[in-house]
């Protein structure tokens, strides 16, 4: 992954990587995979990610689904695939959760994942940002877990409902019935592991592409957000 220095680097305190998209052809952002390898392979086949393309994951590659290690291997071994850290990766690193199949190399990879990846005009995080605060006032935990300025639950209001940018923020973490595409926020966790979809967003063309997920975990409909895109 090409990294560059940016004024953005000096203005935030969360762990962050800035990348240059000028050298890339197609660029995609992909929602929460949660160990669903079959859905991931189906989506990558649909996208037909080429040697000069880039796919950026919003985190939560692991847990809940059956093949977390295989998903990590798939992403880690490709120079066209990169990811930010999600709250489920963080839980593994902090010992709040465990996956017996993971080895030292897997944990080293998880540790290497940044809390955010940005390019000029775009920011990928797992959780979100608080519209009432500057980016510089956000911590790693904020961008990993935030759903609402008043908490991380599903009671709302959600941060993306009032966020007005810039930058345009691509995020996961909040399970959506359908992807959200707003001027300043693009939500991509469409509940793959719950029998929803695995969704990618084509940054160049401005469109979402989804494949059907597999239901590995039951989820209350009260924790699936239905909202209109703008």
UniProtKB/TrEMBL annotation:
SUPFAM superfamilies: Metallo-dependent phosphatases. This is Serine/threonine protein phosphatase. GO terms for molecular function: phosphatase activity. One of its GO terms (cellular component) is cytoplasm. Residues 27-177 form the Calcineurin-like phosphoesterase domain. It comes from Natrinema ejinorense.
């Amino acid at each position: 992954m090409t990294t560059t220095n940016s004024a953005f680097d000096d203005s935030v305190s969360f762990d962050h990587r800035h990348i240059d998209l000028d050298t890339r052809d197609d660029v995609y952002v992909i929602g929460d995979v949660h160990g669903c390898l079959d859905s991931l392979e189906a989506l990558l086949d649909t996208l037909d990610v080429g040697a000069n393309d880039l796919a950026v994951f919003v985190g939560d590659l692991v847990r809940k689904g059956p093949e977390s290690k295989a998903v990590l291997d798939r992403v880690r071994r490709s120079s066209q695939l990169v990811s930010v850290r999600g709250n489920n990766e963080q839980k593994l690193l902090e010992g709040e959760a465990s996956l017996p199949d993971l080895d030292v190399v897997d944990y080293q990879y998880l540790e290497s994942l940044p809390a955010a990846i940005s390019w000029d005009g775009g920011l990928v995080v797992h959780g979100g940002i608080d519209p009432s605060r500057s980016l510089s006032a956000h911590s790693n935990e904020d961008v990993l877990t935030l759903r609402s300025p008043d908490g991380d639950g599903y009671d709302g209001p959600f941060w993306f409902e009032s966020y007005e940018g810039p930058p345009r923020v691509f995020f996961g973490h909040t399970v959506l019935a359908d992807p959200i595409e707003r001027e300043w926020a693009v939500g991509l966790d469409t509940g793959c592991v719950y029998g929803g979809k695995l969704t990618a967003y084509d940054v160049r063309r401005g469109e979402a592409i989804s494949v059907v997920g597999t239901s590995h975990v039951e989820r209350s409909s009260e924790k699936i957000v239905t909202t209109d895109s703008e």
